[in-house]
Amino acid sequence: MADQQRRGPWTIRNTRQVYDNPWIGVAEHDVIRPDGSPGLYGVCAMKGIAVGVVPIDADGSTWLVGQHRFPRDYYSWELPEGGGDPALPPIESAQRELREETGITAQGWQELLQLDFSNAVTDEIGFGFLAWGLDAGATDPDEGEVLEIRRLPFRAALEMVMSGEIRDAFSQVMLLKVDALGRRGELPDPVASALGYARQDV
């Protein structure tokens, strides 16, 4: 990079791509920090977006997916989640991921949130969705995935967040957001009814 670039209070003097694969790239930036001192900043750039879904059925149950997570080397219970093509609407990737991991298709969809993951070191963004009006079907996991599917009451999943059994941040935030919306009376009618939250009159 011949010309210096500004990124907020940071000045980027030079950038090197130090690693690249089909899923991530790592760039190393020579920078001038906001205090004027020279520094080095590494950023992991994601090739896709993250999508996650809270599926809620008429009985007030949801679904978790269990799998081993390589980076931290532990077994993790999570909501249906995965990666999506940034060129597509996030809801399309969420619908695909729910169908692949659980076999479920849904008639009702609502975006719950957008969030950043570890925004000091990566540019990854996540889109969380609420789904209802569910129909069961066959799963179609990605090659290499060994998944365990668990249906349980939504409030039991919420308790797994509070007890620390669900450690995945994306799942925690989505489940807590559904609970918060329910307490505020802002869930869609079918979901509010299934989960036992009062619907706020509009």
The end-to-end span amounts to: 54 Å
Query: How many strands appear in the DSSP assignment?
Result: 11
Give unreliable regions as ranges. none
Tell me the major beta sheet: 4 strands, antiparallel
Please write the string of helix (H) and strand (E) elements: EEEEEEEEHEEEHHH
DSSP helical segment count? 4
Q: Strand order within the widest sheet? A: 1-2-3-4
- Measured by DSSP, the beta-strand proportion falls in 35-45%
Average predicted confidence as pLDDT: 95
Q: How does the overall form come out from the CA principal axes?
A: elongated
Rg calc:
20 Å
Structural class given helices, strands, pairing? Answer: alpha+beta
Q: Helical amount among residues, as a percent range? A: 10-25%
What key attributes describe this structure?
202 residues, alpha+beta, 4-stranded antiparallel beta sheet, 11 strands, elongated
Description:
- The longest helix is centred in the last third of the chain and has 15 residues.
- The strands form 3 sheets. A 4-stranded antiparallel β-sheet has the order 1-2-3-4, with no helix packed on it. It has a 4-stranded mixed β-sheet with strand order 8-5-10-9, with helices on both faces. Strands 7-6-11 form a 3-stranded antiparallel β-sheet.
- It is elongated and about 60 Å long.
- It is built from 4 helices and 11 strands, in the order E-E-E-E-E-E-E-E-H-E-E-E-H-H-H.
- With 202 residues, it is α+β, with helices and mostly antiparallel strands.
Task: Give a concise summary.
This protein has 202 residues and is an alpha+beta fold. It contains four helices and eleven strands; from the N terminus they run ββββββββαβββααα.
